[in-house]
Amino acid sequence: LTQCIVLLVCCHDHAVAFCLNDLAVFKIFLYILLQLDLCNAICSYSGFAVTAPRSLQLMFLFVPLFLWWPCIIICALCTTNVKECPQNCTCLNYSVNCSELSLNKLPILPADIIALNASFNNLATICDHSLLALKRLQHLHLDYNNIHTLESNCFGSLSALQVLTLVKNKLRRIPKEAFVTLQQLRKLNLSRNRLRKIDWFSFKGLHKVQILHLERNALSSINDGAFGNLAQLLELYLNNNKLTSVGQTWLYGLEKLEKLILSSNSVSMIESKGWRFCQRLLILDLSKNRLSALNSNIFSYLQRLEKLDLSENAISRIDEKALSSLGNLEFLDLSSNELSDVFMSGQHIFLGLSKVKVLKLNNNKLRSLPSNVFRGLDQLTRLELLHNPIIIFAEDSIPRIETLEMIWLNSSDVLCNCKSKWLISFLQKATLIGEHLRMARCKYPPKQAGNLLISVPLDQLTCDVYWPKPEILEQPQAIIGLQGATVTFNCSAICTGGCNVLIYWSKNDQRLYSSTEEGISDRLENEGNRTWTSYLTIEAVDEPDSGFYRCHVINELTMTVSNHVSLTVQIPPFFTKRPENTVATVGGTIRLECAASGQPDPMIFWQKDGGHDFPAARERRFHVMPSDVVFFIVLAKYQDSGVYSCIANSTAGFAKAEARLTVLDRGALVMTSTDKAVDLGKTAVLQCDSQEDKVADGRAIIQWSHNGQPFKLDRRRFIAGRGQMLVIVEARANDQGIYTCELNGNVRRTLRLIVKELNNEASKKFHSKSKSDDGKDDGKKNDDNELSSTNVKSRRDNGFDMLSTAGIVIAVVVLCVVLTSFVWLCLIWRNRRPASVVVAIRPDPLELSAVSTDVGL
After folding, report:
1. Which Pfam families does UniProt cross-reference here (predicted)?
2. 13 dihedral zone (left: phi>0; alpha: psi -120 to 50; beta)
3. Which helix (H) or strand (E) holds 822?
């Protein structure tokens, strides 16, 4: 029995833990049990020795001793891996606490521990060999150390880790894939570090993290998709950082987020579309930021939100639909903002908040509560209005509903007259009076000053005391402004008795707020002690700014409104269809299109060559389609040619568009040859052959060039007929040359234009006219063009054109004849020169022999 007990104790997990804590105690315990068993064996042997045989006696003595050896061996195997607790650390079961030991390096740790706390030490790195062996570790706390960096391979063997805290270290960045091996991590705390930004790869691999703490860093930037890998994240803490906006890009991937803490930042802008990535949000804390306005539908995607904290901002503007989508909201804190103007204007900002139970409006400088200002709060149980100098409580301003259990109010400036009788009666009959409500006192009229609201006699609440009412001295005036201009309305009011005045503006009975983006601003000037003037300025007005405006003058008790005045924005005329250059034949029908728009609608009329009297209109051949913007000239004549101007005119201005109309004889329009000749000063029409159906629907792109250079358009040279026709009015010498049209960049047509010279008298007359025209239209031509024109004219005077094929052939033939003649002349001269005299001198035989002898020597 003793052996069995020792065997079970040794192999049990708790025994192993016991051995780790104090192995010496365990040895003593084992030794005692062994001695007891020996004694038992000896005693049994002594009583059995008398009657039993000798062999049986020896077996009974030694068998128990031999049975101890398996027990000892098994215990040794069970305690082989057991190690002692690190020095100065505390061990309990599978947890080791090594905190506050000023460690610079982790000690050797038992391999089977589950939790390790090494906080409040001097550790500079976590890439320690002692951690690599802790494969069963689930909780790791390294808070308040000097860790500067996180290497990507530090957590390679900690695959079972579920909680990791690195609070108050010196981390400046999170390396790429630093946590990629922590597949089982549930909670990560990196608060109180020195992180500046979060990259998109910072939390790669943390697919099961549910809680992430990043508060009290210096975060000013969160990259797009930084939390995209945290698919299971439920709580995100980003408070006490330097964030300036809530963007739609870094909220991506937080589909399951339920709690978001963004308090104590510098958030001044919220992109409402960003909330679509976290539509399951239940708690949102935006307190202690720099929000100044809540625009319409800013929380439109947060329909499940239950708690919203917007306290300690600078909110002075709340659109009526800003909170309407929060149908499940139960807690709303708007304390320490600037909501005085919002409440004085009587806006119903709580519509749709039927489930709100707690509403906090403390410290908002509220001076009055208009009637039904809390409309929509059907289940309100607690209303806090502390630290507000409220003077006026309009009838039914506080909801008298059965669910309301507590009102916190401590204003000592209340006007106690007949208009507040309902409130005092309601408070005196209330069953639950809060401590702060007992501090609310009257200030007006003087005879009630200092009295508690809950103790004022109702029969003394009269309205015989005069209360100042604001009056409008100068009504705003209607304005007609041109598009893009800046307009300003002004409104002056007076209030006797030193009352405070609020002036705001509305457009079409909707309140306006100052907005830099929309170019709307207003300012209030106090001219003396009684007169105020408000200015509403709208920059770069456009058509949507048109409407009816009025100013509202409010004090704590009453409101005065001005007359409605209109703002009319005029838009100068602009063309939606412009007339195009047109070439027509005599007797045909000419179609001209011209349409314009603007505010007010412009009137359209036509001119020809700058005048209103032209043949088509005088002869009633100019027709207008009543239901279209098309103008027709029927039975076209040569006199109809000219420059037609479409003029759109309105009180906002006018616009002008011109097009040239050229009327030609029927035979002058179609040219099938490759050359075209035109008299000097006449009109030349060059046509580029194309398939008419492609040109009509715009599929053919036609480009013209002159002598290899892009064709330059001006008042005398223009393109008509959807690009198919090139019209040159009053042809000149420099107009001749090679013209090329390209269809869609691949089909080319070439045509040579020749300008014929007139007789001397007509030529002089035309040249004098062309010079005057050149001074008006072509005064900026370069010298190269003039030289080219002179060369062309000189070649034309010599009788042929060097650019033509015939001229080249003639030149080549003449050159060949000249060369051939020169060759024949050279041959004839050589054959006729005198014969040369040749004298043969024979050598002397004696001299030859003498030479031979000398050579032989």
Report:
1. I-set, Ig_3, LRR_8
2. alpha
3. helix 805-831
Inter-CA distances, 487 with 70, 567, 568, Å: 104, 9, 11
Q: DSSP characters for 702-757?
A: EEEEETTEEPPP-SSEEEETTTTEEEESS--GGG-EEEEEEETTTEEEEEEEEEEP
Q: Give the helix/strand (H/E) hosting 408.
A: strand 406-408
Q: What are the two backbone dihedrals, phi and then psi, of residue 293, each rounded to the nearest 5 degrees?
A: -155, 150
**Would you state the structure tokens that stand for residue 334, as one six-digit string?**
């708007």
Question: With the C-alpha atoms ordered 320, 325, 329, 333, is the resulting torsion angle positive or negative?
Answer: negative
pLDDT of residue 777 exceeding 90: no
Using one digit for the tens of pLDDT, what is the confidence trace for 626-673?
A: 666 788 888 888 888 888 899 999 988 889 999 888 887 654 444 444
Q: Do 416 and 446 form a contact (C-beta atoms < 8 A)?
A: no
Per-residue tokens: 621: 């051949």
Please list, in sequence order, all residues whose beta carbon lies within 8 angstroms of the beta carbon of residue 840, skipping any fewer than 6 positions away.
Answer: none
CA atoms within 13 Å, Cβ hemisphere of 544: 5
CATH code, residues 471-569: 2.60.40.10
Residue type, 318: I
Instruction: Please state the rounded mean pLDDT for residues 113-117.
Output: 94
Three-state SS at 450: coil
The answer to whether residues 259 and 283 touch, using CB atoms and an 8 Å cutoff, is yes
Q: Which residues of 591-607 are buried (b: 16+ CB within 10 A; e: fewer)?
A: ebebbbebbeebebebb
pLDDT tens per residue, range 575-607: 998 888 888 888 888 888 899 999 888 988 888
- Residue 133 buriedness (CB in 10 A; 0-12 / 13-18 / 19+): middle
For 471-525, the pLDDT digits (tens) are 888 899 999 999 889 999 999 888 766 667 788 888 887 778 777 656 666 667 6
Q: How many angstroms separate the CA atoms of 106 and 773, rounded?
A: 98
Q: HSE, CB side, 13 Å, CA atoms: give it for residue 254.
A: 30
Q: Please state the three-class secondary structure of 9-76 as a single string.
A: HHHCHHHHHHHHHCHHHHHHHHHHHHHHHHHHHHHHHHHHCCCCCHHHHHHHHHHHHHHHHHHHHHHH
Fold annotation for 670-775: Immunoglobulin-like (2.60.40)
Q: Which residues contact 563 (CB under 8 A, 6 or more apart)?
A: 475, 476, 550
Q: CA–CA separation, 790 vs 769, rounded Å? A: 18
How many CB atoms neighbour CB 836 within 10 A? Answer: 5
Q: Say whether the peptide bond before residue 544 is cis (omega within 30 degrees of 0).
A: no
Would the CA dihedral through 40, 44, 47, 49 be positive or negative? negative
Residues contacting residue 597 through CB under 8 Å, at least 6 positions apart: 571, 573, 574, 576
Distance, CA of 113 to CA of 110 (rounded, Å):
6
**Rg (Cα) of the chain, in Å, rounded?**
53
User: Which of left, alpha, beta for 196 (phi over 0: left; psi -120 to 50: alpha)?
Assistant: alpha
Preceding amide of 110 cis, omega within 30: no
**Residue-wise pLDDT tens digits, 717-753:** 877 766 777 888 888 888 888 888 876 555 567 778 8
pLDDT at 260 over 80: yes
What's the CATH superfamily of 578-663?
A: Immunoglobulins (2.60.40.10)
The model's pTM:
0.60
Please tell me the total number of residues recorded for the chain in this structure: 857
Please give the Cα distance from 362 to 122 (Å, whole number).
46
Name the residue with higher pLDDT: 542 or 614. 542
Asked if residues 602 and 650 have their Cβ atoms less than 8 Å apart, the reply is yes
Q: For the chain, which residues make up each domain, given as ranges?
A: 2-78, 471-569, 578-663, 670-775
The mean predicted confidence, pLDDT, of the chain is: 78
